[in-house]
Amino acid sequence: MGHRHQLTDSVIQVNHLSFKYTSQYVLEDITLHVRKGAFLGLVGPNGSGKSTLVKCLLGIQTPQQGDISLFGEPLKKFSGWDRIGYVSQKANSFNSGFPATVFEVVSMGLYGKIGLFRFLTKKHKQKVYEAIEKVEMSAYTNENIGNLSGGQQQRVFIARALVSDPDLLILDEPTVGVDVHSVQQFYTMLKQLNQEHGITLVLITHDIGAMTDYVTDVACLNKHLHFHGDTDTFTESENEMMSTLYGHDVHMLTHNHDHSACEVPTS
Ligand SMILES: Nc1ncnc2c1ncn2[C@@H]1O[C@H](COP(=O)(O)OP(=O)(O)OP(=O)(O)O)[C@@H](O)[C@H]1O
């Protein structure tokens, strides 16, 4: 593989990144590579720095040390922000009665491209329908967003991020408030986006749980990056690694599932 090819295959490259808000570092010496086509589960207990790392990736926070490249370009020079879709943790908090349909919410994802209050062309509308289809919400196209369940709303926000055809989708805790059965369906949908539509995915969660059945790679963060590798390597050493990482404070939550999730009290 030539150097040039490696560059184009790289979606996220983080080198020796350290970050602090005040005097204490919350991320220390993080080196992480996400290749094109990966579905990375970024896991870590509450307060481990997951959201902070994402803020650094999106250029919202600037690390004191280290550097970041997106799609092979240093962050400072990077301009292809429309290649990145981001769905935040708090996206699914619409009240019932919020006066917008699924179609309208998803079409908001186009405004960055076409400008607010412009008319949607037929082609734009087609994009909106396709994005809704990709998250399997076509049956709800004209439904009010407020009438949907948390999991359905989260799908709609993913469709809004998908409407501009991103190459990378970053999802911050997308399954908070989604029931266990829907979580499995949700992950299946994400896996399809990854495999069938070739979108590189970064899924941030504090719940290891079912995720390991769907992702290709796992990164474990707790200020330091304690593990980064493919899912098989992770599951082989999962229990051992969890206790090495988090010691006897680990509170294991068993799901209806082979794997387990960890919740670690923040110190
Ligand atoms: N704006 C801020 N100013 C100061 N400290 C902050 C700020 N935001 C976060 N922190 C601290 O930085 C650390 C990492 O927080 P961060 O939100 O990145 O963790 P997280 O892994 O995303 O947590 P969670 O799973 O609870 O969302 C925590 O100790 C948090 O208290």
From TrEMBL:
The keyword Transit peptide does not apply. It holds the Pfam family ABC_tran. Its EC number is 3.6.3.-. It is an enzyme of class 3 (hydrolase). GO terms for molecular function: ATP binding; ATP hydrolysis activity. Residues 12-255 form the ABC transporter domain. InterPro entries: AAA+_ATPase, ABC_transporter-like_ATP-bd, ABC_transporter-like_CS, Metal_Ion_Import_ABC, P-loop_NTPase. Keywords: ATP-binding, Hydrolase, Nucleotide-binding, Transport. It comes from the Bacteria. PROSITE patterns: ABC_TRANSPORTER_1, ABC_TRANSPORTER_2. Belongs to the ABC transporter superfamily. This is Zinc transport system ATP-binding protein.
